[in-house]
């Protein structure tokens, strides 16, 4: 699978001299024909000095992701082979408007023809000059239940101890037991929602559903813990939330067939939630309704299947709007709830439950903000929540949140208040963290410091997104004779944001590897525009790649390119440290983008070497070499994804050295070998699933690995 090393002959464009330049489209055609084929002359240079490593434009990421869950048939979910054929995933998408192209027939005569939408993926890539990488066309009649009609769980495969994913936190013992009545409610919702479109010959037992339910709850506790486990009661919980939690437990379990069953149940939860809001619009203010919505948005937003991901992305706005209209993004919606030593048992119990309800809203709001920012940086789209509007107080400490009873909660609360040197917790919000430079380093004891630090990082991510958008416009304005002071403003803003991220580095020691991955990624995108990288890689076709190439030629010669590459390599280092089976959501997209920055730098360096006979774009300014002679034997290798040392400092500041990175097994590859860079990225993602074959990996990981492998194998 791959693209031909030559520009497709059926997409040959007429010579510029024969086209009247009367419209932008005509100009584009003339511009394109005035140059040799870009991917032929630039992105597939004729190298002989680096092992004949010919590389072409990568196929679109969306082309590697299945449009819908066509792995479900009429047989038992647990008895079928769920592995997807990649060639089927690469089937071309229908084109909304047929494109007319000029081509030359076997007699050398020019002729016009209409390109059919079912032509190969190679040709489809060439015609995607203006389409979004996430655009896809659903098949006629496609719906939530068109691809499956049977639910049947084999409980013999429910071996929690055998799961390598460690899905159940042993320190949390949820006291709730799932009753037969709750099981019946779940079964009734499944039948009612799916109507006659599915059959259920058997339904899981109470024990099976309870296990999955508790896995779904405790898995949330690994990060920001936004569902309270000790006030949870299945008998008092909305049925659609029970289904969503069970589905989340399935996805986290580790068995591929059980995980895919979870995706089926999430469809049922999604449809049920939509129906509930239509029947009673007040339900959109209910905490449990919003929690159920957040669960399926979390899982489906990065599940790897295009249909689910698109629906999850488009349904994020209603949840944000509901919380905003409910006033839950503002501090005025929250009150101070404080127990006292003289309270009775009944009063303490009531206060604890009110407090847990209020804290649940806080944690849901900040989790939603984090999810929105992950969508923004992974999908390169506008964020939906403003960091400036979040004045909601930061949640209480994790110990207080996970107090197992009202009495223990009161004791911890009073102890924390007696030891606290101030009472600032009720006034600390994301807005106040961002407006005070050092507050994140000196947080009150009675707030969740890990959540606060992570939230602060995503607040910086939102500001970096704004900076990059403004930089795109202001740089274009400057090129057209705009105000020169814009350049100074951009430099000052970049320095300020970079300094905030550097000041945050001491906090990283106590945070998960996925947070270190995001931090390195943010440092990277302060020095490179991801959209330009993806256009260079071929997202929008050959003409846009040529334009991006000219922009990147200036970038690659400067220090900002080497800073971006250093942080991209550090992002890869952080990805290697992520625990097994936990690199499967937005962080896998972030890893992919970091790989593409390294790949871009390697491509540009190799192009510079082809043209100038030097190792790096900067070396040509400092030394000269005879044409065709490379100064590789005397230049030291610099491993960028190790701990920073003198050699990496020299490379970042001067460009001296041959930048390299390591495979998970310790082997070293140089960035000037772009195919090996992609192989490193694929190996890192695969290494996070150590006991799985390619077919058994999560769909998103499998798609990303296949994409990078196919790109690296193109000739």
UniProtKB/TrEMBL annotation:
| Single annotated GO MF | DNA binding
Instruction: Note the InterPro entries from the entry.
Output: XnlR_reg_dom
Gene Ontology biological process terms in this record: DNA-templated transcription
Q: Where is this region: Disordered?
A: 95-123, 610-629
Specify the Xylanolytic transcriptional activator regulatory domain's residue ranges.
Answer: 227-472
Note whether Transport occurs among the keywords.
no
Positions with biased composition (Basic and acidic residues)? 100-113
User: What's a Pfam family in this record?
Assistant: Fungal_trans
Keyword line: Metal-binding, Nucleus, Transcription, Transcription regulation, Zinc
What is this protein called in UniProt? Xylanolytic transcriptional activator regulatory domain-containing protein
């Amino acid at each position: 699978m791959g693209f031909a090393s030559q520009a497709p002959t059926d997409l040959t464009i007429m010579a510029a001299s024969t086209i009247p330049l009367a419209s932008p489209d005509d100009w584009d055609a003339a511009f394109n024909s005035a140059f040799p084929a870009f991917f032929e002359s630039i992105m597939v240079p004729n190298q002989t000095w680096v092992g004949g490593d010919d590389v072409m434009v990568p196929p679109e990421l969306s082309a590697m992701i299945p449009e819908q869950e066509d792995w479900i048939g009429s047989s038992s979910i647990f008895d079928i082979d769920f592995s997807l054929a990649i060639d089927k995933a690469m089937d071309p998408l229908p084109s909304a408007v047929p494109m007319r192209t000029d081509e030359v027939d076997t007699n050398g005569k020019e002729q016009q023809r209409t390109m059919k939408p079912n032509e190969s993926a190679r040709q489809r890539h060439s015609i995607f000059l203006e389409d979004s990488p996430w655009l896809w066309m659903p098949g006629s009649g496609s719906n939530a239940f068109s691809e499956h009609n049977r639910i049947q769980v084999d409980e013999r495969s429910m071996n929690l101890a055998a799961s390598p994913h460690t899905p159940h936190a042993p320190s949390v013992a949820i006291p709730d037991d799932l009753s037969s009545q709750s099981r019946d409610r779940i079964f009734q919702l499944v039948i009612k929602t799916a109507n006659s479109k599915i059959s259920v010959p058997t339904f899981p037992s109470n024990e099976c559903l309870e296990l999955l339910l508790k896995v779904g709850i405790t898995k949330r506790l690994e990060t920001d813990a936004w569902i309270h486990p000790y006030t949870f009661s299945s008998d008092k919980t909305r049925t659609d939330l029970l289904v969503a939690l069970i589905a989340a437990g399935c996805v986290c379990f580790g068995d591929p067939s059980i995980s895919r069953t979870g995706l089926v149940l999430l469809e049922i939860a999604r449809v049920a939630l939509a129906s509930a809001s239509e029947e009673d619009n007040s339900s959109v203010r209910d905490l449990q309704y919003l929690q159920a919505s957040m669960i399926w948005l979390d899982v489906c937003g990065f599940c790897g299947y295009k249909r689910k991901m698109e629906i999850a992305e488009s349904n994020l706005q209603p949840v944000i709007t509901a919380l905003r209209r409910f006033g839950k993004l503002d501090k005025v919606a929250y009150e101070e709830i404080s127990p006292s030593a003289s309270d009775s048992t009944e009063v303490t119990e009531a206060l604890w439950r009110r407090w847990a309800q209020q804290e649940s809203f806080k944690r849901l709001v900040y989790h939603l903000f984090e999810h929105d920012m992950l969508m923004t940086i992974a999908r390169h789209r506008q964020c939906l929540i403003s960091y400036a509007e979040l004045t909601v107080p930061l949640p209480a400490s994790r110990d207080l949140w996970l107090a197992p009873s009202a009495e223990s909660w009161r004791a911890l609360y009073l102890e924390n208040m007696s030891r606290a040197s101030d009472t600032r917790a009720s006034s600390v919000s994301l807005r106040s963290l961002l407006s005070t430079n050092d507050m994140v380093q000196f947080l009150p004891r009675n707030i969740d410091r890990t959540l606060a630090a992570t939230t602060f990082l995503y607040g910086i991510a939102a500001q970096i997104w704004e900076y990059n958008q403004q930089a795109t416009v202001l740089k274009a304005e400057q090129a057209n004779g705009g105000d020169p002071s814009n350049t100074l403003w951009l430099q000052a803003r970049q320095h300020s944001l970079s300094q905030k991220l550097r000041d945050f580095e001491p906090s990283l020691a106590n945070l998960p590897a996925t947070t270190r991955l995001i931090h390195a990624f943010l440092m990277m995108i302060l020095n490179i525009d991801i959209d330009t990288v993806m256009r260079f890689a071929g997202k929008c076709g050959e003409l846009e790649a040529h334009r991006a190439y000219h922009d990147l030629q200036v970038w690659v010669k400067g220090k900002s390119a080497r800073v971006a590459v250093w942080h991209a390599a550090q992002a890869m280092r952080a990805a290697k440290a992520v625990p097994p089976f936990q690199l499967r959501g937005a962080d896998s997209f972030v890893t992919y983008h970091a790989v593409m920055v390294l790949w871009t730098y390697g491509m540009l360096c190799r192009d510079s070497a082809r043209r100038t006979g030097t190792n790096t774009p900067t070396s040509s300014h400092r030394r000269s070499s005879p044409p065709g002679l490379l100064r590789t034997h005397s230049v030291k290798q610099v491993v960028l994804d190790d701990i920073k040392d003198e050699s990496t400092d020299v490379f970042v500041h001067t460009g001296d050295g041959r930048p390299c990175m390591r495979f998970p097994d310790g082997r070293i590859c140089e960035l000037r070998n772009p195919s090996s860079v992609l192989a490193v990225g694929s190996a890192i993602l695969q290494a996070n699933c150590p006991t799985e074959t390619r077919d058994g990996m999560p769909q998103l990981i499998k798609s990303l690995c296949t994409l990078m492998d196919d790109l690296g194998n193109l000739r």
